[in-house]
Amino acid sequence: MAPASQPPMIPVTQQDVGATPRSGAFWVLYGKAQDAFNLAFAQKRPWAELVDRTQLAKPESFSDALTRARKNWIHFRINYSLVLVGIVALSLVFNPVSLFFLAALLAAWTYLYLVRSEPLVAFGRTFSEREVLLGMSLFTVALVFMTNVGSTLISALAIGAAICFLHGAFRVPDDLFLDEQETTGGFLSFLSSGTGAPQGTSHV
């Protein structure tokens, strides 16, 4: 009796082994960033409330202006952040050289950490991932602070911060209870883990 024939072996090839962990990490980070931005936009206040002229009044003192600015920052922190981003974007549009450098820098980071799947080889030498990260970090710092990119970004952030502070200082804060999450979360608190609703606190 002839022995039973075994099924043919299917060759297994390893393709894009190096790219799989990198792409997987990218999608994990993308999902977390998307959740964070969705949570941030859910906390955004209506723009009509932000530009309500009936709520504007001159502060009585500089201390009063600081108090108002702090309270309004807690209440409108997402709106103020969007204002800052918008001013930075406009400054880059009106400075095409800085925009070009930033686009080139973003393209370099994207290629090295999202597209590249093999070790980086240059000048007959293979660079480790730590060396690539260190080199790109130094190159980024040099490009930002030794060109017009740094001055453009700093000027835009300064203008945006001044606008937000003036608005917060002249807007009379609403006498609303600020829950614990708002008063202790601070800047970019929407990036903290957990997307559930904040726990209630006792009111006297």
Automatic annotation (TrEMBL):
Membrane topology term: Multi-pass membrane protein
BP-aspect Gene Ontology terms: vesicle-mediated transport
UniProt GO cellular component terms: endoplasmic reticulum; Golgi apparatus; membrane
Location relative to the cell: Membrane
Main location: membrane
InterPro entries: Prenylated_rab_accept_PRA1
Keyword Thylakoid attached: no
Spans through the membrane: 80-113, 133-166
Keyword Membrane found: yes
Keywords from the named record: Membrane, Transmembrane, Transmembrane helix, Transport
Taxonomy, superkingdom: Eukaryota
PANTHER family: PRENYLATED RAB ACCEPTOR 1-RELATED (PTHR19317), PRENYLATED RAB ACCEPTOR PROTEIN 1 (PTHR19317:SF0)
Biological role: May be involved in both secretory and endocytic intracellular trafficking in the endosomal/prevacuolar compartments.
Family to which this protein belongs: Belongs to the PRA1 family.
Stated name of the protein: PRA1 family protein
Provenance organism: Physcomitrium patens
Gene name of this polypeptide: LOC112291536
